[in-house]
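Input.
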Amino acid sequence: MIDPQQLRKGIPITDDPYEDLALQYSMDKDELLECLNKMVEKGEIIKFRALLDHRKLGYKVNALIAMRIENFDASNIPGLENISHFYIREPNEKFPYNYYAMSHFKNDQDLMEFSKALESLGIKHEILKTLKNLKRGSK
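Output.
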């Protein structure tokens, strides 16, 4: 049986990560792939994805952008390639924003250009720059 918590921790990048993972579970690669496919069918695994270190890729400025958008249309949002997470939340009187985007930029100028693009679309927003990442394993 494959431990989902171990999968959440990640699979090392190797020449054959599935073969290496199969060895950890004392099974052959075909057995592992069959188990993984069953987990996908059951909805236990939603997706496999690569986690990139945005700092090593040159993205030094991170910000949560809180936006007030009345009629959401993703095609109207500039810089989608800079957004890693996009959420809708209930606004309130003190903070009337309903969309939140975690964004990553190479520098402050790129962030300001993103802000200007939002302004040109009439999207009211606030920029909350990241001061320090507190997540375990982050620098």
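The chain has four helices and four strands.
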